[in-house]
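in:
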């Protein structure tokens, strides 16, 4: 099944090119402390859980859970196996966390492999709980906002094998049957990975109905812990962002057959295609098998995608173009029954393309003599007879160790993929390139979780909208310069933002919390002397410190408050009134 190579469309109206910097505000942030009766159920990694993936999945786990349906309510699991809830109505009159459910036996008393207990609020009246040793429990919570004192009732419980955490869950009615979909994460040993870490990451999509016949299990695997993974409403699909791609391997324990398309019989010792360009157009010459006619050609061209194939074989050339073209002004023709010549009209004249199709290495670029001469002329000032023409020869021209963290990007190129719930095949793929993943946040409980990526120096928030297949990810908010700022915080552990986008926040491993507010009008007249203009808005940065020497284990934000969870305390920071 073919998939669409997509790109994330930035809304330029949400960018602020004139943004200068954050101004440190000394305004104090009220901080309230709730001492816990029992410590949070923190699970520290064992010697056998030594990989980077173990650290990402379990060592950096957020133990605090916020209720998207009822703001100002947070949940966590303590070492006694209790699911505790704290709802804030008045900051100066905070009560003790209430017990909503107790696991039996306590997970800490179980021998063997163990990971963090995890909670996922499935709907306004349901929740899913993992005890960290392999057991899943579905809980009916009643309407939590209207009846916060009623304890949760277990409706389904089953051992699902190896320990897991719950990444996402949702509740819906399917064919008149109430159904719950869950997405589980495991790090499993992989004997086949002898040259790597010896582990692989599995995502299991489970659908649970009223009885055992309605249960379905779909397993996918990959070589990295996903940055983002969430189910679509009604269980119609799944979206995964990761450094390395995932694919479905099993359904209900039965391996899926790899139904890959048959490759064309084209000699691979030479490039499949050649291409050259001018400032106005691009010419592509694709090699064809002998006897190919124009009726055999399968050609598709859009503004930013090209697909060239023969009959029902796998495409010879397919993917996202380096830059937009004009499809109506582009043509193709067969030359000497041996090659297909495609002429693409560039939409923007001038800039030369560095590649034809993003990520494709099956072709060869042919540069004409005039272009080669111009290129050498432009680079002449960067070359010299000696490797380091510097009077101080003992000093290298560049020291990579002097680069700051905020100047670096991830080495692996991450992808964002959307899988269809019926076929389990990818339908849309985005190459995230150097757009570093920052955090995931629930904006609207009726929609999928949003995710935040670094774009240049800014941080852009993207909201999945699966009901619009032509515009699957919408740019909904921008946090100016946050991409650059967060990279400089070497001790950063968590990041999040308010659901109304009024601020973003970072939490370090110990004590400190950084708050970055959106630009707001100033009460007094400010004047920028360098640029000679009046400043109408200022973006404030604030720093708060919690009074605890314990590491931060959880961090969540509402429009008004930040919640910071440590081993023995829950701190509430009043950010907005």
């Amino acid at each position: 099944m073919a998939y669409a190579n997509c790109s994330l469309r930035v809304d330029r109206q949400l960018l602020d090119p004139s943004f200068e910097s954050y101004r440190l505000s000394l305004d104090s942030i009220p901080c309230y402390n709730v001492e816990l009766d029992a410590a949070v159920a923190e699970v520290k990694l064992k010697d056998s859980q030594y990989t980077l993936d173990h650290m990402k999945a379990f060592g950096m786990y957020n133990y605090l859970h916020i209720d998207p349906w009822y703001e100002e309510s947070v949940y966590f699991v303590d070492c006694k196996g209790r699911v505790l809830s704290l709802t804030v109505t008045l900051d100066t009159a905070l009560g003790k966390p209430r017990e909503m459910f107790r696991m039996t036996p306590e997970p800490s008393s179980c021998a063997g492999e163990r990971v963090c207990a995890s909670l996922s609020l499935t709907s306004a009246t349901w929740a899913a709980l993992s005890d960290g040793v392999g057991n899943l429990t579905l809980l009916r919570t009643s309407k939590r906002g209207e009846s916060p004192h009623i304890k949760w009732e277990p409706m389904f419980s089953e051992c699902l094998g190896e320990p897991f955490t719950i990444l996402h869950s949702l509740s819906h009615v399917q064919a008149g049957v109430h159904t719950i979909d869950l997405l589980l994460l495991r790090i499993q040993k992989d004997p086949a990975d002898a040259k790597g870490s010896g582990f692989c990451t599995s995502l299991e999509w489970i659908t649970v109905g009223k009885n055992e016949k309605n249960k379905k299990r779909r397993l996918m695997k990959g070589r990295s812990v996903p940055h983002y993974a969430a189910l679509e409403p009604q269980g119609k699909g799944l979206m995964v962002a990761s450094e390395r791609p995932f694919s479905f391997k099993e359904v209900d324990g039965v391996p899926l057959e790899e139904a890959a398309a048959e490759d064309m019989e084209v000699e691979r010792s030479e490039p499949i295609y050649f291409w050259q360009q001018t400032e106005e157009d691009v010419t592509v010459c694709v090699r064809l098998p002998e006897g190919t006619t124009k009726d055999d050609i399968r050609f598709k061209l859009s503004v930013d995608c090209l697909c060239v194939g023969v009959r029902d074989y796998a495409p010879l050339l397919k993917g996202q173009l380096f830059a937009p073209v004009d499809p109506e002004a582009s043509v193709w023709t067969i030359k000497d029954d041996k090659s297909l010549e495609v002429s693409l009209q560039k939409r923007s004249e001038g800039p030369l393309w560095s590649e034809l199709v993003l990520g494709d290495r099956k072709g060869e670029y042919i540069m004409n003599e005039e272009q080669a001469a111009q290129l050498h002329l432009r680079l002449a000032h960067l070359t010299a007879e000696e490797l380091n023409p510097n009077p101080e020869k003992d000093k290298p021209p560049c020291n990579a160790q002097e680069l700051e963290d905020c100047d670096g990007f991830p080495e692996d190129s991450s992808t964002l993929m959307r899988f269809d719930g019926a076929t389990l095949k990818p339908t849309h793929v985005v190459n995230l390139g150097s757009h570093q993943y920052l955090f995931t946040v629930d904006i609207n409980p009726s929609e999928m979780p949003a995710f935040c990526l670094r774009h240049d120096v800014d941080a852009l928030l993207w909201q999945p909208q699966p009901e619009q297949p032509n515009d699957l990810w919408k740019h909904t908010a921008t946090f100016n310069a946050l991409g650059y700022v967060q990279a400089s915080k070497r001790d950063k552990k968590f990041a999040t933002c308010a659901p109304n986008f009024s601020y973003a926040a970072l939490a370090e491993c110990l004590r400190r919390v950084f708050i970055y507010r959106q630009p707001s009008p100033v009460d007094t007249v400010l004047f920028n002397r360098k640029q000679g203009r009046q400043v109408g808005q200022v973006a404030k940065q604030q720093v708060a410190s919690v009074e605890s020497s314990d590491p931060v284990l959880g961090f969540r934000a509402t429009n008004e408050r930040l919640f910071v969870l440590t081993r023995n305390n829950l701190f509430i920071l009043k950010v907005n009134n």
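note: The first strand starts at residue 4 and ends at 6.
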